[in-house]
Hints:
Low-confidence stretches: none
Structural class: alpha+beta
Amino acid sequence: VFMTKNEFFAHLSETEVNVPFFMFAEQAVEGLARLNQQRLWRERTETPAPRFSVDTEAVEAVFKQAAADNRVQLTTGESLQVLAAYGIRVCRDGEAKNADEAVALADKIGYPVVMKLNSKKISHKTDVGGVRVGIKDAAQLRAEFADLVNKLTEKGLMDGFEGVIIQEMVKSDREMVCGCAKDPQYGQMMMFGLGGVFVEVMKDVTFRLVPLTVEDASDMIRSVKAYKLLAGARGAVPAQMNKVEETLLRLSQLVEDFAFIDELDINPLMISDKDGEPIAVDGRIKFNATEALVALSIA
């Protein structure tokens, strides 16, 4: 550590040296800390994730239908079907083409419910008012359905409209996000962190390479600042950490089995105020059509 003038380091940069030089002691300590972090990472144990029993045939059927429609993105309903087929807890829900079907579904699920736009063209539903929460009865549900259709019509967004999804309303103040994206250099990367509408603002997320190990899943949850919320801050019911970890491991298996998935988001992954169970209330999946055709043996 040389606490001296900048000219010294300018000259040093032109010299062949085999020792790191720093201007301040804090930088040298940070360098040593990074070396120690690398050492601990290399020495850690790695427990392979268990292979879960899943319904791959159901997932293949969903992707084949999307490919047949010349689509590269699943609808919300299809995305939730894929997640459920891999054992991920999703909201009780159903798809409705019209207001009458929506009311029948809500009566079966039980009020209050959430109504979400189901479209082959629109992926970010909140941007177009496609998510309506806290619907208390049939009259309000019919009014919300009519209002949604009117707004989509006014904006010229009815193309690809599949109807709506009616879901049970999960009460939670804790919204997480998890999913994966395909990096051109490293391949599939899993993501976990604070979700909801703040995911792009707070950026409290962490990443790991697929396939995840048991230790990876545990580390991801505990490495984000939002972990304190999961642990039960201010008297909240603690999240079922084993279930959150299992959700990440099941997602890892999904994108490993179907490597043509380019993007997958569960946002939000609600942590139930009642018992701390993680519940996927929304999903979005995009895939590579060319790779899917080959992998699924579609002519």
